[in-house]
Amino acid sequence: MAFIQAGRRSVDLRSDTVTQPTQEMREAMFRAEVGDDVFGDDPTVNRLEAMAAERMGKEAALFVASGTMGNLVALLTHCQRGQEMIVGDQSHTFINEAGGAAALGGIHPRTVKNQPDGTLSLADIEAAIRGENVHYPRTRLICLENTHNSCFGTPLTVEYMQAVGNRAQSRGLKLHVDGARIFNAAVALGVEVKELAAPADSIQFCLSKGLGSPVGSLLCGTREFIYEARRNRKMVGGGMRQAGVLAAAGIISLTKMVDRLAQDHTNARRLMQGIAEIPGLVAEPVHTNIAYFRFAPEAKLSEAEFVQALEQHAVRLLSIGPRRFRAVTHCWIDSSDIEAAIEAMRQVMNGKNA
Ligand code: TLP
After folding, report:
1. What residue ranges in the chain does DSSP mark as E strands?
2. Is the CB–ligand 1 distance for residue 147 below 6 Å?
3. Which residues does 331 contact at the CB level (< 8 Å), separation at least 6?
4. How far is residue 219's CA from residue 20's CA, in Å, rounded to a whole number?
5. Average pLDDT, rounded, for the chain
6. Which string of b and e fits 238-269 if b means at least 16 CB within 10 Å?
7. Of 261, 317, 258, 263, which is closest to residue 293 (Cα–Cα)?
8. Most exposed: 171, 243, 261, 306, by fewest CB within 10 Å?
9. pTM, full prediction
10. How far apart are CA 39 and CA 31, in angstroms?
11. How far is the C-alpha of 89 from the C-alpha of 114, rounded, in Å?
12. Is the CB of 66 under 6 A from ligand 1?
């Protein structure tokens, strides 16, 4: 099921963001009933937002252009300028969102060390909450990421989410969840996504990753929160007009693409199993669809040579720096692609070219 890229079959494991819309999505996009969403007139967007809110167990939802925009709009809505958010030092929001919260919202990030399982320890959160003091910014928000991308794609459990939600509530703080891959978490843990979202005051999830849509994320929360978030989305230029053409694909993501995520997790496990058997490569723990591995000390290739040699075999993945790599499974990768990727890596590590 791999893509055809530049006329060639390609097993693209760089990210689940590379997924292309399915035929069913393309047809739904073609047929979508649309209107001007800034006027609230797009029936397909309205339907997607209602479905998303229902799935997350929240009162309302807002369709945004990307996960980055969903997080930014949430942070702008929760925090005033000069207020502080507690955020993991390995989180996507802190590392990979161009510092938008600080640059555009004047929000002060207070980083707390991410544990290898993607959590922030409750003791570290507690220690990071500011007391009242004229010198300090005021703590306003705690941010979690579930699954945690750079911490091995680990799903954070319902119990942990609840514990942080309780802590936030008892200290008068809000909890925002970057749930870019929250459905991967729910499927891996065998729980309802609502249970994971329940402790959050706001949660954003992506349609454009494992769920296969071309574009879009949803930010979910109370009606009042989403009312304010809609204004902030407008402020960052995210008011879209006939966005129903995109929302139509999103509806298929929510109705047809969630349960199949289990297959991506199985494929990622099989990939890691294969990699673990290749001399010169070391597999790291895998929990969902994001798999990290690295060179063993004896490996002679450079990262760039490895990635380029794999490209010759039509296998694409990311080098993420010193001697480490990331491969992400998704709906355009099937088990035969995984076997092809393993075989390509075996040949490259054996010094063979395509
Ligand atoms: N992640 C992308 C890259 O930006 C790293 C990827 O390939 O994994 N939260 C999390 C946890 C994410 O992993 C991402 C994207 C986002 C937010 C941002 O989503 P987009 O790309 O839609 O802005």
Report:
1. 3-5, 8-12, 60-64, 84-88, 108-112, 139-145, 174-178, 202-206, 217-221, 281-283, 290-295, 315-316, 318-321, 324-328
2. no
3. 19, 22, 210, 212, 257, 260, 264
4. 22
5. 96
6. bbbebbbbbbbbbbbbbeebbeebebbbebbb
7. 317
8. 171
9. 0.97
10. 21
11. 6
12. yes
Is residue 241 pLDDT above 80, yes or no? Answer: yes
d(CA 290, CA 257): 17
Judge whether 101 and 109 are in contact, CB under 8 Å.
yes
Q: Is the peptide bond before 147 cis (omega within 30 degrees of 0)?
A: yes
Nearest CA to 129 out of 118, 121, 119, 141 is that of: 141
Question: How is residue 148 annotated by DSSP?
Answer: B
* Closest of 145, 147, 107, 112 to residue 126, by C-alpha: 112
The 10s digit of each residue's pLDDT in 161-203 is 999 999 999 999 999 999 999 999 999 999 999 999 999 999 9
Q: What is the predicted pLDDT for the residue at 321?
A: 85
Q: How far, in Å, from the CA of 14 to the mean position of ligand 1?
A: 12
Residue 211 in contact with ligand 1 by CB distance below 6 A: no
Is residue 68 lining ligand 1, measured as CB closer than 6 Å?
A: yes
pLDDT at 8: 67
Contact 81/105 with Cβ under 8 angstroms?
yes
* Identity of residue 143: C
Residues 126 and 100 sit within 8 Å (Cβ to Cβ): no
Helix (H) or strand (E) holding 78: helix 67-78
